[in-house]
Design goal:
Helix content is 30%, strand content 27%. It has helices at residues 11-20, 40-45, 54-58, 75-84, 99-111, 126-137, 179-190, 283-295, 305-324, and strands spanning 2-7, 26-32, 49-51, 65-68, 88-91, 116-118, 143-151, 193-201, 212-219, 224-230, 236-243, 246-252, 262-268, 274-278, 328-329. Strand 9 (212-219) and strand 10 (224-230) form a beta hairpin. The mean pLDDT is 98. It binds nicotinamide-adenine-dinucleotide. Nicotinamide-adenine-dinucleotide (NAD) binds at residues 7-13, 32-35, 38, 54, 69-72, 74, 92-93, 119, 121, 176.
């Protein structure tokens, strides 16, 4: 059993702890929260020891790993500090905000020989695993272009001063909330990005940081991804990969918070559309348990570090493009 401390007990930390309480691979007894009063009842309900100082868990030899659910600009320094203390790290997305920072984070985990995992649980959805397998098998031919959408209206009720709506913690409006998951999947198909063009606008809400984001990512191997992320329309989740012999699409039935599963559609040239339903599956827990497998040496974490770097390198370029409206080259 991997003994972890969850750091940052807001929305997502409170989703992760109850999931970990059901795990046969991970145990959690300690959490870190700078505002402990906000989780007094939750801590009692889940028998949690709450500490306010991150360094306290880094010094605790009984804790082998940390799960970071903190605001975005804290991630890199927390990964580096945890790795230097010999702790394995699961970090929520985005891993870092710049290429320089993700390289720093990855150097620290590699220097200290600890595992690193990232909260891109969409990679662990059974229909996405199936779609990736089909694409890699070559059945659909050469991947040409991705169309992907992750939109929701959950943030419309957030207070205007919430960090998730700030230009510093969440540049390019919806990008760090939802767009980043689609960028990660696109990197999973095409690899390193070459250049990006992003446009973010405030069109249909009070979200001054932007509620409507459109991105065109061009990849080094030639493919494109068209990514759409909107914060002022009801939930939509769609990931489609068009190839030169056919195409495949995964569509969420509902928002992942109240999951009802997915529909996978596959079309081959000359054939008819094949439609398969997938029931809900515990993909967030599957990601955390894949992290435990990597930390305890049972299996490598399935997302290679090269793709973690490629994702954040493209993310930084998207931030710059959304700010300047210019095409931005992705550093490599
Ligand atoms: N994978 C997903 O689908 C998904 C979904 C939601 C959020 N997230 C990610 O989870 C992370 C947290 O987001 P959230 O929506 O839960 O935010 P939140 O504001 O609800 O929670 C963050 C919590 O961290 C606490 N905190 C801040 N600094 C801290 C520190 N140094 N030490 C300990 N606690 C600290 C805050 O008091 C707060 O309770 C972000 O990276 C976000 O992108 C991922």
């Amino acid at each position: 059993m991997l003994n972890v401390a969850v750091v940052g007990m807001g929305w997502w930390g409170k989703i992760i702890v109850p999931l970990l309480k059901t795990s046969k691979k991970i145990t959690v007894n300690t959490v870190v929260e700078v505002n402990p009063a906000s989780i007094a009842d939750f801590a009692k309900q889940h028998s949690l020891n709450v500490v306010t100082d991150f360094n306290a868990v880094l010094k605790d030899p009984s804790i082998q790993a940390v799960v970071l659910c903190t605001p975005h600009t804290q991630h890199t320094d927390q990964i580096v500090a945890a790795a230097n203390a010999g702790k394995h790290v699961f970090c929520e997305k985005p891993l870092s905000m710049t290429r320089a920072d993700v390289l720093r984070a990855i150097k620290a985990v590699n220097d200290n020989k600890v595992a690193l995992a990232v909260g891109h649980e969409r990679r662990f959805e059974p229909p996405i695993i199936e779609a990736m397998k089909i694409i890699q098998s070559g059945e659909l031919g050469t991947p040409l272009q991705i169309e992907a959408n992750f939109s929701q209206d959950k943030f419309l009720t957030l207070a205007a001063d919430n960090w998730r709506l700030s230009g510093k913690e969440a540049p390019a409006g919806p990008m760090t909330a939802t767009g980043i998951h689609l960028l990660d999947l696109s990197v999973g198909v095409f690899g390193e990005a070459d250049r990006v063009l992003a446009s973010v606008k405030q069109l249909g809400s009070q979200l001054v940081n932007g509620d409507t984001l459109a991105i065109l990512v061009s990849f080094k191997n030639g493919g494109h991804a068209l990514i759409s992320a909107i914060l002022a329309t009801p939930f939509e989740g769609r990931f489609a990969v068009y190839c030169n012999k056919g195409w495949i699409e995964v569509r969420d039935k509902t928002h992942p918070e109240a999951p009802e599963g997915w529909v996978l559609t596959k079309t081959l040239r000359g054939g008819i559309k094949e439609v398969r339903e997938f029931p809900p599956a515990p993909n967030v827990l599957a990601n955390l348990e894949a992290f435990a497998d990597a930390a305890e040496g049972r299996a490598p974490y399935p997302v290679p570090q090269s793709q973690m770097i490629a994702n954040i390198s493209a993310l930084e370029a998207i931030f710059k493009s959304a700010k300047t409206n210019a095409i931005v080259s992705v550093e490599s």
